[in-house]
Records
---
Amino acid sequence: MLEPMTRVQIIGLHRQLEATTAALARLGVLHLENATESSALPSLALDPQRVRSQEDISFLQARLDALIQLLPDVDGASSPTRPALPTALDALANTVRAPLDQIAPPLQALAQRRDDLEAEALAWPRYEAMLQKLLPLAAELRVPPGFDTLALYIDKRYRSALDLLRVEVEHITGNQAQVVAADVDERTTAALVVFPHAQSAAVHAVLEHENITQVRLPKEIAGRGFHDARRALEERSHRINAELAEINAQLHAQAQQWRPQLIGWRSVIHSRLQGLQAETQFASTAHTFVIEGWLPKRELPSVQNALAQELGPTVIVHELPVDDHELEHAPVTMENTPALKPFERLVRTMGVPTARGLDPTWLMAIFLPLFFGIIVGDIGYGALLLLLALFLKRRYASNGAIRDLSQLLVYGSIWAIVWGVLYGEVFGTLQYALGSPDNPWPPALWIPRTGDQIVTLFIFSVAVGAVHVVLGLVLGLWDAWREKHRKEVIGKIGMLVALTALFGMVGALTNLLPQAFFTPTIVALVVGIVLLIVPLGWMGLVIGPLELVETIGNIMSYLRLAAVGLASVYIALVANEMVGVFGNVVLGMIVALLLHGLNFAILMLSPSIQSLRLHYVEFFRHFYKTGGKEYRPFKGEA
Amino acid sequence: MEVGLLALGAGIAVGLAALASGLAMSRIGAAGMGLLAEKPNMLGTVLVFLVIPETIVILGFAVAAMIIFLLGG
């Protein structure tokens, strides 16, 4: 159900503002409203000094975030706690800033050095691979003094450019250059060019003109012979690894010492910033601040007591009178027992209800598992689903979403077993193997789905749909009556009258009702359609009948309760028939188990989605109005 | 012959309905995935829109079952 809310006003002296904000953050039940709008008082003026202090601690928070990111997570470090820090902004900033200024620069330098070394370590293997490919070529070269060497990689498709390069370079250097080339893999050709140092600029200009990429080595090893360069690479790689290990050890030690404290400081600063943000909604007079907001009615006494104890009689909490119009804008929260919480989560996915609307959680708790059970309707599958649900609930007790979903599955699987008893079904058709084809065990207490009474099942499904949709319409009518929406009331009455007339007509045609009922049902249908049309004006001539057809479609949609269930029965039937098809019992059993497994997987998902869809689309549309404001209480970080 | 025609009729009823349903759901699903990529919290709404066309195949199944059991029986 929707939690009854009340609007409160809190007034206190300016000197108690920070303490009051901190107390409200700790209590975490007040949904703040802008006090300046309702009270026509000016907002709490933030003096320039306070604004500067706020900016200071925002900056400190950013610095803390950056520093915490640099430090690794460490096992065995003490858990973060909220340290006792001064409440006043300036004192808070000074207390945190001083140690931060001391520890941040060396930590940042260490982290920067680590990043540089890691980048370098990533690049070395690439250079080593290049050198590995160039070494065979280098063996062919003699590099006299005063000569430079450069290495090139060329795509094999453009190998002809090498010949042009050779001609150009020999021309520039007066035949003093040497070019050797070889394929290094299926796509690349490497080349080494030796030329006099005096023609270096001209040779590089040719390379640029021909758009040929030169292999550039780091300056630490450029200019050395290739063998020396390779040895230097290996040594450098070892030194990098050693230095990285030392830096990581230092960072680890710093993290053990500082990380919990930094996280604690960040938590306190974050709470203070949240408080400052909240204060922008407060109003003020010359000597007092004014806070307005909503909280659950049942929390009012505890809030009054808590503030009186912490802050004394100079902070007053009093309840404001609220009219219907204001109540429409109250924040909304649902309050249900723990058993209904999983259904509440599902209802919330459709949006927050209006403040004066209906909470359909308890209705969903009744019908959703029931529909799930009608669709699955099998003792064997139901028992397996129940075991799985209990296992998941125990295994993931700390994960809220999985725990709730498994609780839903528990309810649904219990109903699946109940309907399995009514249908007399065990894994589709195994009841005939456990008993006999004429006397299955367990016997169906109602109708077997594998028999020839499918039409009865369809009629039952449509009847369930009729009950569910009519219930939705009745709730919608009650809500419209309460809200005094006259046109909506007339429309809902018209729909109910028209539907009742249609049911009566069907009853008369199928001899469930006396034939004499037929004519009155026609009259009632016309009356119902007229009542649908009237509230909508001329447009109602089209929209009214369309709405009736749409509602009939909604009811027919409940055929899925039978259809989806029958689909799984037939898959199970095929699976059971598989045992004897192959002539080999073992092979048949394996195939049967696989099919049953597939069926089980489908049964976990499909009935849930279909049941949910019936609620969201066919049921809720008749009465559930969303658009309410969600209850978001002001609270500090845990 | 008659049994064969009944079976054919039932198959066409559910097959065409399934085709129409699949066509509708494929487009809704694609649009829904695009929405979820930007707003993951819209999963509930997307799921609702995705399953709306399933009514078509359910009604086709119902027609097929009635052909087999009412006309065939």
---
Amino acid sequence: MSHADDWNPDDGPPPSDDERASARALSEALDHREAPRDPDLAAALSVARRVQATAHPDPEAARKVADRVVSAALAEHARPAWRRALRGRWGLAAVAAAGLLAVGVGAGVSATRPAPRPVDPITATTAGDFTERLGENVGSAPAARIYDDRMRAYRDRLLRGGRR
Amino acid sequence: MGAPDAAAAEERALVEAAKGGDREALELLLKRLATPLYSAVILPRVGNPADAEDILRDTLLRAMERLTTFHWTGAGLFPWLRQIAIHLIVDQARSRQRRERLGERYEHHVADVMPLHHAGADEMLMEQQERAVSLRLMEAAMATLNPRYRRAVELRLLEERSREECAEAMGVTTGNFDVILHRALAALRKAYGVR
């Protein structure tokens, strides 16, 4: 639909389609209370709200807002200084960033730690074989156990085709 | 002692008590001054109610942190709170300018049109005085607009007519009225600056 024919030149140069879309979005935003995300639209809406707040104040609504904010500010001021430092979006963002950093560092440290080497069954020993206290009359039992363990591991390896 | 003197003395007593750590005195003071501060100083300069609420909260917190540095004058506590609020508004606007990389540079006028307040003044009186300042600023900004743009703002925002009624009043289609209003607000934004 062409708008070129009905545009009044006294109102400036004819608008582009983009400008028409922005103007329409502003018109809709004026009728709703939510804040738009587009920064240009938000800026234009802010100017409109300034005019409305100046020309049409709402004392009752203002009092409710003010009382609520005063109560919240007094409560916040009563907190310890270190907690007050975390207030607001930036404080919370700092805490979140610190948390992410801690998790990331932890994950990075874990990732760089060398993986445990697979235990060579031939060299593996049972925990107590070499450290077991020699008792009386045990003869060569510990040494025999070591020999048996190692021969068993060697045989198992041969049967698996040399795979460890 | 006349009524204004008594009110000023009462406010001074509350300020001194608050400075000494009396939370009840502090709450009484802030609840009395926060409404005209929000309604007549912050909201007409900021527009967005959520931003205005943030500015009010930050103003009150800053004031509480610095209350011991406040020195009593005949004007009372309100002008001091007002100055804190205006500085925060200017900081917010500058920060937004940097984020949005706006080409225009706005004039920032801080407290150059502050009305004369006196200690113990009635809340409604303070609000009326501040509102008169905001109205003058708005009228001065509107006066710089193209007459068609000014008419669009008057119809839509001051007279609060629907866009269809506005379009009919100006003899244009609703789509074209939207464009005229859009351009009017862009021009008004430049005229307003942050005042």
